[in-house]
Amino acid sequence: MRIKRIALQNFRNIEQLELRPGEGINLIHGENAQGKTNLIEAVWLFSGMKSFRGARESEMVRFGQENARLTVEFFSEGRDQSASLTLGGKRGVWVNEIKRDAVSDLCGVLPAVVFSPVHLSLVKDGPSERRRFLDTAIGQLLPSYNSALSYYQKALFQRNALLRDVQYHSELLDTLEIWDQNLVRAGAQVMLLRQRYIARIGQAAKEVYEGISKGREEMNVFYQCSVEGYDPDWDLPKLRGELEKALRAHRAEDIRQGVTSVGIHRDDLAITLGGLSARLYGSQGQQRSCVLALKLAECGIIEESMGKVPVILLDDVMSELDHSRRDYLLNRIGERQVFITCCEEDIFHVLQSGRSFLIENGAIKGGEA
Ligand SMILES: Nc1ncnc2c1ncn2[C@@H]1O[C@H](COP(=O)(O)OP(=O)(O)OP(=O)(O)O)[C@@H](O)[C@H]1O
């Protein structure tokens, strides 16, 4: 899959922009606050997901304007296609000029993987960021994961409410058993799918990281399941049995505290470099490389599972990466179409092939637009 043309109107600081990217690497460079991230964000919206900056639609429309209009022309599934989005007052989504109901209808049309500084929270922050990463990545591939997760979350909400009541109404203990069974059924399913996905992405990320770091240190990713004694070889019946046992073992404590202390909502993804926690001991460059490895590994899995090559969007990824890591990124990430933003021009000498574009005040001013 390859984007052939991007046209933007009244999107953030971009009044009017047209770009014809190349098939491989496309470097978007310029000074701070010129519109580099805005361009990446605009392309990302075609993945059918929300802004990776957490922006509301209205915030993305150029100040003083009513609507933003975004169009991409791309080659996919053996033919030229197009997609358009109107944000703001008159919202709309079109694929090949046919109107669709919602932005989420774009899911799978133009798959993309994005890395931006906000994604560093994947390594730096607490477990909820990593669970969000897993849930989004697995959910994109398997709708059954989303159903099990949402069933679990509803059951968890009910169980927590009940735990608080049971303190005063012991006759409700029987009802607790029902919610436990619901949690076990959905929870074990989610655990199994997380286990499989982590084994897959862990192996792929390890290989990418080896390339990025020239084998200087080894990256490993493990499933930190909240159930005590967890073993990655557990099958579905075993996962069910162990989760049930854990819920029972924690029941008294849960009633005292009024919350469920074990289950998939307490899982984590451990990321290590040379056996040490990347969060606690990794340098800025190493942490950046870890997230990048995970993102590129995710990209490979989407490719295998969906049969479509995602577009890679790398926003401000170059800072804090040394020469050899930049070289790997610019020249060795394969045949995919990549958009990379950066401030410094001096990285261009590393680029062996590809195109570069200068962006100034929301407009393409130089390069091969
Ligand atoms: N809705 C909007 N309307 C007009 N301008 C906006 C809107 N939203 C954001 N901007 C402006 O867009 C400008 C460029 O933002 P962007 O994040 O793309 O910068 P950048 O080139 O990636 O910079 P940096 O290198 O600092 O990351 C900012 O100055 C911001 O104020």
Major sheet: arrangement of strands: 2-1-4-5-6-7
Total number of helices: 11
Poorly predicted residue ranges: none
Query: What structural category characterises the helix and strand content?
Result: alpha/beta
Give the class-level CATH name of the largest domain.
Alpha Beta
CATH topology of the largest domain: Rossmann fold
Q: Can you summarize the main beta sheet?
A: 6 strands, antiparallel
Helix/strand order:
EEEHHEEEEEHHHHEHHEEHHEHEEE
Number of domains: 2
Approximate strand percentage: 15-25%
- The CATH architecture name of the largest domain reads 3-Layer(aba) Sandwich
CATH superfamily of the largest domain: P-loop containing nucleotide triphosphate hydrolases
Q: What is the 3D form?
A: globular
What is the helical fraction, as a range of percent? Answer: 40-55%
Small-molecule components bound:
adenosine-5'-triphosphate
**How many beta-strand segments?**
15
Organism: Harryflintia acetispora
GO cellular component, one term: cytoplasm
Function: The RecF protein is involved in DNA metabolism; it is required for DNA replication and normal SOS inducibility. RecF binds preferentially to single-stranded, linear DNA. It also seems to bind ATP.
GO molecular function: ATP binding; single-stranded DNA binding
Task: Describe this protein's structure.
- Helix 11 (323-331) links the parallel strand 12 (311-314) and strand 13.
- The strands form three sheets. The protein has a six-stranded antiparallel beta sheet with strand order 2-1-4-5-6-7. A six-stranded mixed beta sheet has the order 8-12-13-3-14-15, sandwiched between helices.
- The two termini are 20 Å apart.
- The model has no long low-confidence stretch (mean pLDDT 92).
- It has 369 residues and is of the alpha/beta class.
- The protein folds into two domains: 2-111 and 313-367, P-loop containing nucleotide triphosphate hydrolases (Rossmann fold, 3-Layer(aba) Sandwich), CATH 3.40.50.300; 123-280, Up-down Bundle (Glutathione S-transferase Yfyf (Class Pi), Chain A, domain 2), CATH 1.20.1050.
- The chain is built from eleven helices and 15 strands.
- It has helices at residues 36-44, 57-60, 121-124, 127-141, 143-166, 173-212, 236-249, 251-257, 278-281, 284-306, 323-331, and strands at 2-11, 14-19, 25-29, 67-76, 79-88, 92-95, 98-100, 112-115, 219-224, 268-273, 276-277, 311-314, 338-342, 355-360, 363-367.
- Bound molecules: adenosine-5'-triphosphate.
- The site of adenosine-5'-triphosphate has 17 residues, from helix 1 and helix 2.
